[in-house]
Amino acid sequence: MNAWSIAPIGLALAWGIMGLIFWQRIRLLRWLGVLGSTSFVALSIALLTMVQKEKFLILQVGAWRAPFGITIAIDLLGALMVTMTSVLAWFIALYSLTEIDESQVRYGFYPLFFLLLMGVFGAFTTGDLFNLYVWFEVMLMASFVLMALGGYRAQLEGATKYVLLNLIGSTFFLIAAGLTYSLTGTLNMADLAVQIREIDNPSLPLVLSALFLIAFGIKAAIFPLFFWLPASYHTPPVAVTALFSGLLTKVGVYAMVRVFTLIFPFNGTILQPILLVLAGFTMVTGVLGAAAQWDLRRLLSFHIISQIGYLIMGLGLFTPLALAGTIFFTLHVVIAKAALFLVSGMIQRLTGTFNLKSLGNLAQTQPGMALLFAFPALSLAGLPPFSGFFAKLILVRAGLEAQQGAIVAVSLVVSLLTLFSMSKIWQEAFWKPARREGKGILPVHMWGAVGGIVVVGVLLGLFANPIMTLSLQAAEQLLQPSMYIQMVLGGQP
Amino acid sequence: MKARSMLLQVAVAYLMPLLLIFSIFLLIRGHNEVGGGFVGGLVAAAAFILHAIAESPKATRAHLPLSPDKLIAVGLSIALLSGVLALFQGNPFMTGIWLKQPLPVIGKVGTPFIFDVGVYLVVIGVCLHILLNLAEDER
Fold it and tell me: Are A297 and A354 in contact (CB under 8 A)?
């Protein structure tokens, strides 16, 4: 029993309420955003150290015992994800000080920002399948509005597609959860893990896991369910895009990892090769889609999809090393991707466009920005000594150990194509002579936020070893569900 | 501006207190029987919306003790506090704390009831926030 596990949700709600109270106090709200995110970072680090000591932080809400009440359980994976979310949110809050304009703050950016984080924290910490659905909805509600914030025509178009396709995903999730309940009579994840293993007919759980794969696949934007992402991610303010790229799809991947390790371990079933094939296709279509783009944000959005492929690959391989690779890769890609989006926001702010064709010469006029772009770009492409290199190295090694040569080959080729794609941005935006010169000075908060997140990315590469150790521990916890089950159900087998 | 119906205005003057009392009845009844904060909140919001149709959205806003967004904030705070109270007793978040003796009229009172009051306020706040904004845009 540990009351701390509800703290991320409670704290995010409390800050959301503060945001509602001071809705019209723009300047105050902006700093509340930074202050709130700082408190999340502090809390998540405290949680991470606690989890390392105690392995699990478990709370039975309302003192209702496990299979009957709602369980909030933080294991190492949950704590790592909460920490990653908080760190990202901190930089986004700093960046938003100047990026989110006054009318967008008046439309409720900050309350929604906190409520979105509440949904994300909830999804990362809950130990109940239906509760997970509820947190998905909280997150989606907040993100719907954030996506349409400001109400420009392109935004509304993007938001409509986003809402529609995500609702379809939610419907699949709800159907799958309902069927699971009718099959087992429980929705508590630990109890489910026990009940599912007792079902004689192996095809029923398999069908259910396929349904969950579709539901989470839509959220995570895997092939062939990713259409909503490139259709919508380039429309909201850059800070929102960076936040979404870091959180929404990753929550989908997290849900997959959680459900497919704890409840429906799919190793040895037909789903495993399917997942690997999907991972390969996700990587390839994402990177090829990116190659055809000339809009900086659209290009980066396609790269999100391609990187999701790597995360799914780790899950599909289903070895401790591969899952650790997925966890490490998640941390890496969230930071690198957000950094790239934030740099693209700086470019837009300076030159007024995202179009690569009309950009140019930024390496000379803005050497600092070029540096800030180069680090995460090289990291994303997987060059040493950046975090992306280690993340990919682990996945490749795990793939070779599992003798899945094909997916390893695909992942390496996609790496190369990513590098090509990054060098295209470099060539177009930073090297070639400019058609339109950038003018003006960027606010210091912006430099601070982007510089900070790039430094975090670099540190992730420099301290790859301790972080990898943590990821390995988290992966081992995931692959031994009996511990989790015992902790949640309290001694019952 | 549309011409207001006098019939409606007179009717609302009588209906509104009734609806509000009924909404509170629903809220209190909700613990063991049909009703609760959500339904009660909807009925109360409907009462205010009826008023907005009969008079004007502006007049309704003047009637409200708090603006809708503040109502949401207060409701959420009450709901959150009702959960946090259990922590002071050393129990898990949201454990129900009940008064030993049932109060007259209201009945058994405990933190779940306080949570429901929070829901009641949030529902009123959200409904009014959306509908009053829409009604004001119409003009």
Answer: yes
C-alpha to C-alpha distance for A482 and A490, rounded to whole angstroms: 12
CA distance A324 to A165: 30
pLDDT one-digit tens code per residue, A279-306: 999 999 999 999 888 999 999 999 999 9
Q: Which tokens sit at A111?
A: 């309350």
Cβ pair A97, A27 in contact under 8 A? no
Q: Is residue A7 situated within a structural domain?
A: no
Give residues with Cβ within 8 angstroms of A171, minimum separation 6: none
Nearest chain A Cα to B72, which residue? A20
The pTM score is 0.93
In a domain, A391, yes or no: yes
- Specify whether the CB–CB gap between B59 and B139 falls below 8 A: no
* Measured distance CA(B11)–CA(A255) in Å, rounded: 53
CA atoms within 13 A on the CB side of A260: 32
Query: Would you give the DSSP letter of residue A386?
Result: S
Q: What is the pLDDT of residues A346-362, one digit of tens each?
A: 998 888 888 888 888 88
pLDDT 10s digits, A456-489 = 999 999 999 999 999 999 999 999 988 899 888 8
The C-alpha atoms of residue B93 and residue B133 are separated, in whole angstroms, by 36
Whether A111 maps to a domain, the answer reads no
Q: Report the DSSP beta bridge partners of residue A355.
A: A295
Smallest Cα distance from A22 to chain B, Å: 9
HSE-CB of A246 using CA atoms within 13 angstroms = 33
Whether chain A has a CB inside 8 Å of the CB on B95: the answer is yes
Residue A375 lies in a domain: yes
Q: Is A14 on the interface with B (CB under 8 A)?
A: yes
pLDDT averaged over every residue in chain A:
90
- Residue B78, chain A, CB below 8 Å: the answer is no
Domain count, chain A: 1
A493 secondary structure, DSSP code: -
- Residue B119 touches chain A, beta carbons under 8 Å: no
Give the Cα separation of A92 and A37 in Å (integer): 9
Name which of A191, A140, A143, A200 is nearest A170 in CA terms: A140
Please check the confidence at residue B138 and state whether its pLDDT lies above 60: no
Given a contact cutoff of 8 angstroms between Cβ atoms, the answer to whether A402 and A314 are in contact is: no
What burial class does residue A430 get, using C-beta atoms within 10 Å of its C-beta: 0-12 exposed, 13-18 middle, 19+ buried?
buried
Question: Are A398 and A321 in contact, with CB atoms under 8 Å apart?
Answer: yes
Report the alpha-carbon distance of residue A252 to residue A255 in Å, rounded. Answer: 5
The domain spans of chain B are: 6-138
- Residues of chain A found within 8 Å of residue B94, distances taken between Cβ atoms: 61-62
Domain that residue A397 falls in: 266-462
A313 has a pLDDT exceeding 90:
yes
User: What CA–CA distance (Å, rounded) separates A377 from A363?
Assistant: 14
Do the beta carbons of residue A326 and residue A315 sit within 8 Å? yes
Q: Could you please report the per-residue DSSP string of A33-59? A: HHHHHHHHHHHHHHHHHHHHHHS-EEE
